[in-house]
Amino acid sequence: MALKTFRPLTPSQRFKALPSFEEITKSKPEKSLVESKHRTGGRNNRGRKTSRHRGGGHKRNYRIIDFKRCRRDAIAEVIAIEYDPNRSARIALIQYPDGEKAYILAAVGLIVGTKVAAGEKAEPNVGNALPLKAIPLGLALHNVELIPGKGGQIVRSAGSQAILSNREGGYALIKMASGELRRINEECYATIGQVGNIEHMNVVSGKAGRSRWLGVRPQTRGMAMNPVDHPMGGGEGKSSGGHPRSRTGKYAKGERTRNKTKSTNQLILVRKNGLKLGGKYS
Fold it and tell me: What is the DSSP string of 68-110?
């Protein structure tokens, strides 16, 4: 995927860099794999805001993605690469010999006509899903399960990948992009390859309107508020107002948010900050 830039005829075009969509081969989604999507606007079931700065945005339909790769030992063909408004990655429409269609995440190198399969006997090629016990060491993975049969839960965003580094005692050792080294049951499935749309991190919207299309509303800095409205408000001039924190006083930097008694802590060998399991902050 490539990015396209624009002539700086207006301030919004000066630094704007948008995807070229040259890899997209089908403009409209498969009707049988689309369902309506309810938007909350950041409110809970009582109508109260639980997530600020959300609302509006363009209407979207949800594309049903096969994160479980349910059809095992059946070879499917990629018939289209599509845009998905609900995620940063592109999706691939695959079709099985009996005519059944499904959506999967589009990996780097996955093009129309590529054959993909899922199962223990599948070849370790891009787009194929295999259990971690059957994948050669050192390969890049995405759409990795955490619980066997639950479907891929991690490594699903654009450009992300994890590396299968080792296997021991019925577990596979997976190295995340953050540097975290984690043990995952070797019966869990993962898909070979890196998630496509790797230039997504370099996209520059160029204007506030594009954020509104995505459902992101304006955000006022805490420092610009009064002390009654925010812990960092008030002061003469541009005073710091204290440590970065939310309106409710929750610190935004440095505070540990993971529960120290969480049961899955034992599956993390090395945290993303480089500390080994069993250390002071494990």
Answer: S--STT--EEEEEEE--TTSSS-EEEEE-TTS-EEEEEPBTT-
The tokens for 152 are: 């891929």
The domain at 3-40+58-200+259-270 falls in which architecture?
Answer: Roll (2.30)
Where are the domains positioned within the chain? 3-40+58-200+259-270
Looking from the CA of 57 toward its CB, the CA atoms found within 13 Å total 20
* pTM (two decimals): 0.90
Using an 8 Å Cβ cutoff, are 63 and 84 in contact?
A: yes
How far is C-alpha 227 from the geometric centre of its chain's CA atoms?
Answer: 37
The per-residue pLDDT string of the chain (282 residues; one tens digit each, 9 = 90 and over) reads 689 999 999 999 999 999 999 999 999 999 999 999 999 999 999 999 999 999 999 999 999 999 999 999 999 999 999 999 999 999 999 999 999 999 999 999 999 999 999 999 999 999 999 999 999 999 999 999 999 999 999 999 999 999 999 999 999 999 999 999 999 999 999 999 999 999 999 999 999 999 999 999 999 999 999 999 999 999 998 887 788 888 888 888 888 778 889 988 899 999 887 776 654 444
